[in-house]
Write a structure and sequence with these properties.
mainly beta, 4-stranded antiparallel beta sheet, 4-stranded mixed beta sheet
Length: 128
């Protein structure tokens, strides 16, 4: 003998409210690679030109689809054009720079996480 519980409109309403609450709960954006820290640091004023600019991300990034550029205050690219993901650390993006003159510089990055999600951004630093 099967026993069924009576399903009332009240029960349906409760179930629909629970489903709606689950659908509206924000989920973290999994898969994106976000910067954890950089060298030079974001907004830093440093005394001398760095040899390279580096950004460490919170997850591994795809070398073929990730890039890092450094521009001077006039918008001219000043890095050596050798942007790469570090071969021994897939979460580190770096580019070499020549000896930079005092002034403001803008770092522009774009990366693709291993699962295909792209993120990008920029920040500045100043050399005294």
């Amino acid at each position: 003998m099967k026993r069924f519980l009576p399903v009332t409109d009240h029960h349906r309403g409760v179930v629909l409210c629970l489903l709606a609450a689950l659908c509206m709960t924000p989920a973290p954006a999994l898969g994106h690679a976000f910067p954890e820290h950089s060298d030079p640091r974001v907004g830093a004023t440093i005394a001398a030109s760095p040899e390279r600019v580096r950004i460490w991300f919170d997850s591994d990034i795809e070398p073929l689809f990730s890039s890092l550029m450094v521009h001077d205050a006039s918008g001219r690219m000043v890095d050596k054009g050798d942007s790469r993901v570090n071969p021994s650390n897939a979460a580190l993006l770096e580019v070499s720079v020549p000896k930079l003159a005092p002034g403001a510089y803008r770092v522009i990055w774009s990366v693709v996480a291993r699962d295909g999600h792209r993120t990008n951004g920029d920040y500045t630093f100043v050399i005294k």
